[in-house]
Write a structure and sequence with these properties.
The chain is an all-beta fold. It contains no helices and 26 strands. The strands form 5 sheets. Strands 1, 2, 20, 21, 22, 23, 24, 25 and 26 form a 9-stranded mixed beta sheet that branches. Strands 11, 12, 13, 14 and 15 form a 5-stranded antiparallel beta sheet that branches. It has a 4-stranded antiparallel beta sheet with strand order 3-4-5-6, with no helix packed on it. It is globular and about 55 Å long.
Length: 333
């Protein structure tokens, strides 16, 4: 697992469907305001891979043919679409869990690669902006990365889990789940064992992937249940904040998390009604002083309604919408 090859591929499929979003009604003090021009990109829909994109540094990113020997990463910007096939030497199946971009345009990929014999390992993949160079770093031990984020200084943050026994799918609760690497793949350090996290299951099949974000302000980590964890830029300590105030009478999940360059933390949740399509949007802003989450009104933002918080552009929030291939941008006031 030392190198990967890149070549052109087909266009990814993206289908965004949702019911009309709904806003917080518990006395929101701030609201979303549309800002700038919407970003529209052409998508050729093809089942069964239908996903919301990731938005990072001026590009939308989607993944196609995940779990094959050559998944396709698609990057969309104002100049069009750029497909990249990602392969890992010796692997028959490459499973991509997350992608992100650094300030210099490098695409970071985390996931797992498996050979025909069933053996597998986690990896970090790095593709240069021009797509001409790819580096794959194999994770040591039984650590499998799930999420990746780049700090402005270029270092790589990865959230993952480590197993005790893959056959029994049992997790090592004492292993560090948040790890920092340099661009060569050298491990710089780690924080947080699963044992110290709130709301964490013990087995792999029920482990929530959560969200990992980074900006000039620092690094933030949020599981789909449990608290929000934050490391300030230039610091080594970590601070935990309470979980979001979810509505207990509804099937509701955290669907997005961002950390702006100014240090604002926003999170979204959606209600699900027996399908994978979200029906309704709730949004919150972290109040560090009060150690709580304040609701943000998302009711008066026009159509098509925002559905999923995809990422940020500096301090501007990017949302996936009810229209396929359309990203809208908002400020919070």
């Amino acid at each position: 697992m030392s190198n990967a090859s890149i070549r052109c591929a087909l266009i990814v499929a993206l289908g965004l469907q949702t019911a009309q979003g709904q806003g917080n009604v518990s006395n929101p003090q701030q609201q979303l305001r549309p800002i700038g021009e919407d970003f529209s990109f052409n998508i050729v829909a093809s089942e069964p891979y239908r996903v919301f994109p990731i938005w990072t540094l001026g590009k939308a990113i989607t993944i196609e043919k995940d779990g094959t020997s050559a998944p396709v990463i698609h990057l969309y910007d104002s100049n069009g679409e750029s497909p990249v096939i990602f392969t890992v030497n010796g692997a028959d199946v490459v499973k991509i869990d997350h992608v992100a971009r650094s300030q210099d345009g490098t695409v970071g990929i985390v996931g797992s690669a498996f050979s025909g014999g069933g053996s597998g390992a986690g990896f970090i993949g790095l593709i240069t902006q021009n797509g001409q160079s790819t580096q794959v770093v194999r994770m040591s031990g039984h650590f499998l990365p799930q999420r990746i984020a780049f700090s402005p200084d270029g270092t790589i943050w990865v959230k993952g889990w480590e197993s005790i026994d893959m056959a029994r799918r049992e997790l090592n609760n004492d292993a560090l789940i948040l790890r920092q690497f340099d661009r060569t793949g050298k491990l710089l350090g780690g924080l947080l064992s699963r044992r110290t996290l709130t709301g964490m299951p013990r087995h792999i099949l029920t482990d929530s992937y959560g969200f990992l974000v980074a900006s000039k302000y620092g690094v933030g980590l949020k599981q789909k249940s449990g608290g929000y964890y934050e490391i300030l830029a230039g610091k080594t300590g970590i601070t935990e904040y309470p979980d979001l105030p979810l509505h207990g009478d509804k099937v509701e999940f955290v669907t997005g998390l961002t950390l702006t360059d100014d240090g604002d933390v926003f999170a979204t949740t959606s209600v699900y009604a027996g399908t994978e399509v979200p029906h309704g949007l709730y949004m919150y802003k972290l109040d560090r002083k009060a150690r709580s989450w304040s609701p943000v009104d998302v009711r008066s933002v026009g159509q098509p309604s925002p559905v999923v918080l995809l990422g940020i552009q500096g301090n501007t929030l990017a949302f996936g919408t009810a229209r396929a291939g359309l990203v809208r941008f908002f400020a919070v006031e």
